[in-house]
């Protein structure tokens, strides 16, 4: 409660910039290379992709909350998890952007976090769209 008002004071929420959709062709996910890293195990690849699709919407929501609420600890932890998943799936460019968000959280320097997150979210959404086209993967949306 504010000492001047009888109503609770809402935390400051940072607005996020608008990013035009990233064409899915620009965000490369090479499923062939990822499959090769899994010794050709297509079932394992489908399972890993499905887990990523199931978890990434929650993780993106956590990142968005971290950025809008300026929660450096949540930003660092969530970006770290996504960085590893993206790297494992063979997406070094998108993984590097997660690394940038992780570092911003670690350093508590969130001035550019909203801009970086907006691009990152668009990239992850485009990658997820490509993954959903993979045979044997449930076709669910990333933003629930």
What does this structure look like?
The chain has 144 residues and is mainly alpha-helical. It has a domain at 42-132: HPT domain (Four Helix Bundle (Hemerythrin (Met), subunit A), Up-down Bundle). The chain is 60% helix and 0% strand. It is built from five helices and no strands. It has helices at 31-37, 42-68, 72-88, 92-107, 113-132. α2 (42-68) packs antiparallel against α3 (72-88). The longest helix is centred in the middle third of the chain and has 27 residues, at 42-68. The model is unreliable at 1-5 (pLDDT under 50).
SSE order and pairing:
Elements: H1 31-37, H2 42-68, H3 72-88, H4 92-107, H5 113-132
Q: What low-confidence regions span 5 or more consecutive residues with pLDDT below 50?
A: 1-5
Name of the CATH class of the domain at 42-132: Mainly Alpha
Could you report the average pLDDT, rounded to the nearest whole number?
Answer: 83
> What distance separates the N and C termini?
32 Å
Radius of gyration, in Å, reads: 17 Å
Percent in strands:
under 5%
Which descriptor suits the 3D outline?
elongated
Measured as a percent range, the helix fraction is 55-70%
Number of strands: 0
Determine the CATH topology of the domain at 42-132. Answer: Four Helix Bundle (Hemerythrin (Met), subunit A)
Q: Spell out the helices and strands N to C.
A: HHHHH
Q: How would you name the CATH homologous superfamily of the domain at 42-132?
A: HPT domain
> Structural class from helices and strands?
mainly alpha
Number of helices: 5
Largest sheet, in brief, is: none
Assign the CATH architecture of the domain at 42-132: Up-down Bundle
């Amino acid at each position: 409660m504010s000492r001047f008002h009888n109503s609770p004071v809402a935390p400051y929420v940072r607005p996020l910039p608008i990013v035009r959709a990233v064409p899915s062709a620009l965000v490369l996910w090479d499923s062939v290379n990822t499959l090769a890293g899994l010794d050709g195990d297509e079932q394992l690849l489908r399972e890993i992709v499905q887990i990523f699709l199931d978890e990434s919407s929650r993780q993106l929501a956590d990142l968005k909350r971290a950025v809008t609420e300026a929660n450096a600890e949540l930003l660092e932890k969530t970006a770290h998890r996504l960085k590893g998943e993206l790297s494992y799936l063979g997406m070094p460019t998108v993984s590097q952007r997660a690394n940038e968000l992780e570092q911003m959280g670690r350093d508590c320097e969130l001035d550019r976090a909203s801009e970086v997150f907006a691009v990152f979210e668009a990239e992850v959404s485009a990658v997820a769209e490509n993954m959903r086209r993979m045979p044997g993967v449930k076709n669910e949306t990333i933003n629930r």
